[in-house]
TrEMBL record:
Keyword Nucleus part of the UniProt annotation: no
Entry-linked InterPro entries: NAD(P)-bd_dom_sf, Sc_DH/Rdtase_CS, SDR_fam
A Pfam family matched in the record: adh_short_C2
Protein name per the record: SDR family oxidoreductase
Entry's family note: Belongs to the short-chain dehydrogenases/reductases (SDR) family.
Keyword Oxidoreductase among record annotations: yes
Keywords: Oxidoreductase
Domain of life: Bacteria
Cross-referenced Gene3D superfamilies: NAD(P)-binding Rossmann-like Domain (3.40.50.720)
Amino acid sequence: MDLFSLQNKTAIVTGALGLIGKKHCEALANAGANVVIADINGEAAIAFAAQFGNNHLGIALNVTDKASIEKVRAAVIEKYGTIDVLVNNAAINDMFENPAMAKELSAFENYPLEAFQQSIDVNITGVFLCAQVLGSVMAQQGSGSIINIASTYGIVGPDQSIYRDECGEQTFYKSAAYPVTKGAVINFTRFLASYWGHKGVRVNTLSPGGVENNQNEFFIQNYAAKTPLGRMAKANDYQGALVFLASEASAYMTGANLVVDGGWTAI
């Protein structure tokens, strides 16, 4: 079990206050890491970090702002001296302020360009910048693990039928933004793995499936029906995979996409 230990390692999680972001932090802390809980909401990040104890750091981070990432880097190096693990978890998934307009606005023909651009800024550029600024520390020290969080929708196209309700009414369309950006993250992983491999930096993707989170019952049932394990994920279903990728248990693994989706992409 020592292979999975992250004792005395420093791990940064971006978008740390999201549904699975919190579980990523919990898993890394339980494995022994000093966890940097980085989120756009700095005050909430500080409060969440306090739950884990003094060895952990909560800090504000805007992944689209290079200066913000540089501030995080400086704070982490000052406190811990190293950066050993980076979990690029921050991302935007489509949300529409007016639910009544969700179907119309999410349709490809009407999808707002500004929404598409915002997803690119956070989901792709944010990963690029964090890897560049924070990953460079790993390259200089000759070791580290970068884990880019993608999605099953970075591998396969969305099944729009799962967004139909009991009456067959399409309530929403999965837009192009999330699949396009998550597909880019997967290939960015391959680039970075080949670029920094000789520096001792491993770069892998973790592609999770959908997480149950108070969605409409029809959606939960539709999703489960397409999944060999017959259910949506629980928020903590990715903790083991994350620790595996962060630790020496995956020492000979880089450039890979670890898919944890209950079999969604298998059929």
